[in-house]
Amino acid sequence: MKKPRGTQDFLPDDIVKLEYVENCFKEVCKKFGFKEIRTPIFESISLFKRGVGESTDVVSKEMYSAFNSREYYKYIKDKNLQTTSPQEAMQAFLSDKNRLTLKPEGTAPIVRAFIENKMYADTQPTKLFYNTPCMRHERPQAGRFRQFHQLGVEMFGVDSPASDAEIIALAYTFLDEIGISNIELRINSVGCPKCREKYNNILMEYLQIKKHNMCSTCLERLEKNPMRTLDCKSENCQENVADAPMIIDNLCDDCIEHMNLVKEHIHSVNISYTIDPKIVRGLDYYTKTAFEIVHSGLGAQNALCGGGRYNGLVEQIGGPEISGVGFGLGMERLMIALDAEGVKLPEQKRLDLYVVAVDQSCVTITTKIVQSIRKMGYSVDRDFLNKSVKAQMKYANKINARFTMVVGQDEIDNDKYTLKNMDTGDEHRLSFEDIDNMNEYVKNSIADILDNK
Ligand code: HAM
C-alpha cells in the first residue's frame, strides 16, 4: 500500500525538525501577544462557500467533501432522489448546506469559532495563532501537496494599518529566528468593496475585446469576480492582462491612505518590500492589504506565506461588523526553504541512559531502575528481546546513548552498579539503597553523573 497522492509521511527525524519550527513559531506568536486556537479538521461546506467564495478554485474545485454513506442514502430516500442519476443525486447531496468538508485553509474556521464562541464580545483585539493541516485537491508538484500544514495568525477588531504591519513583522521575526533569509515581501491593496466595484467595471470593460482569447475559467471569473483574471496562469490570459488597469491605481482615498501607512510601518521596522499590483490572492475575502512572502529556493510554488486584511468576512459568516487581518505560512514549503538555504536544525536529542539486563532474572529490577530514573526527568531505554549483553551494548552504541548501566546478579546482590559514559569511557559507581524509594542523596548522585557534573 502507498500513501495517497500529494501526501507525506513525516518520519521521526523529520518530526524533530518540525517540532523545533513549530515551537519557535509558538514562542514568536506569544511574544507578539497571540494565543493558540484549534478548530475541527472538518467544517460545513457552506462556511467555505460563504467565506472563501464559491467562484474560487479552492471552493469550486479543490475541496475534499466528507460524508457518511448512511447519511447519503437517507438523504436520497428522504428527498426521493432514487430515480435521479447518481451524479445528480451526489451533487444535490453535496450542495446541501449541512454537508461537511475537510478544511482547505485556516481562516474561515477561525472566523466561525470567533463568532460561535462570542469572542467578539471580549475586549478587542483578539489575537489568535494556529497550526493546522489543510486539504486541497490540487495537482501535486514540488512544494504543492494535497495535505499540507499552515502556521497562521489572525487578528480581529483592529482597522489600524499598524496591525497589518504587525503581522508581517511577526512572520519576518519567525522566519529570521529559524534562519530563513532569502525572502521578499510583495504587497498590494485589493481595495474595499467601494473601489473594488468601480475597478471591476473598468477591468471588465478593458477585457471585453479580449474575451475571444480567454480561458473558460477566466470567462467565468469575468462574470463573478473580474479581478481574479489577473491571477490566471494560462499564457494567453497573462498576455490579456499584461497592460490591464490595476486596482492599486484605482483605490479610493481611504484605501490609498491605509496602504501608505502600512508601507510606512513596514519601513519603520526595516522590512523591505516591492509593490506587486498583480497580487490578488486566490481567496475572495481580502480587502485592502494583500501580501505574499516569496522564497527564492521554492521554484514555481514560491509563495511561502500569504495573507492580508479581510474586513467583511466576520459579517459575511454571520457575525458583527468587525475587521480582521492575518496570514498563513506553509510548513512544507518552509522545510524546503530551510533545506535550500542549508539551515541546520537541531538533531534528535540523545538518549540519556540505556540499561542492560544480563539475563531474565535481572529483568524485574531493570524495569524498576528505568522507571525510577525516568521519573527524575531523564530519557531511559532498555531491551525487550532477550538480547545478549554484547548485543544490547551494540544497540546502545547504535542509538548513541550517552550512558549505559549493566544490571547483573552481582550488581543486584551487592547493590553496586556502574554507569558508563559512552563518549569518554569514564565509569561511575552507584548504590540505590532502596530503588522504590530513592533518597535525595542517591537521586543527586545519579543527576550529577547524568548531567556530567
Ligand atoms: P493561501 O495563500 O491559500 O492563504 O495559503 C497560505 C500558504 O499555505 C501558502 O503561502 C503556502 O505556503 C501554503 N499552501 C497553500 N496551498 C498549498 C499546497 N497545496 N501545498 C503546500 N502548501 C500550500 C490562505 O490559506 C489564507 N487562509 C491565509 C490567510 C490567513 N489570510 C489571512 N489570514
Task: Characterize the structure shown.
The chain is elongated. α1 packs antiparallel against α7. Strands 1-5-6-11-10-9-7-8 form an eight-stranded mixed sheet. It contains 17 helices and 16 strands. The model has no long low-confidence stretch (mean pLDDT 94). 40% of the residues lie in helices and 18% in strands. The protein has 453 residues and is an alpha+beta fold. It starts with 11 loop residues before the first helix and ends with a helix.
What value does the average pLDDT take? Answer: 94
Instruction: Walk across the major sheet and give the strand order.
Output: 1-5-6-11-10-9-7-8
What is the tally of beta strands? 16
* Overall spatial form: elongated
Structural class: alpha+beta
Alpha plus pi helix count? 17
Low-confidence stretches: none
Separation of the first and last Cα atoms:
50 Å
What is the CA-based Rg, rounded?
Answer: 29 Å
Strand content: 15-25%
Report the biggest beta sheet as strand number plus sense, adding barrel if it closes: 8 strands, mixed
As a percent range, the share of helical residues equals: 40-55%
Bound molecules: histidyl-adenosine monophosphate
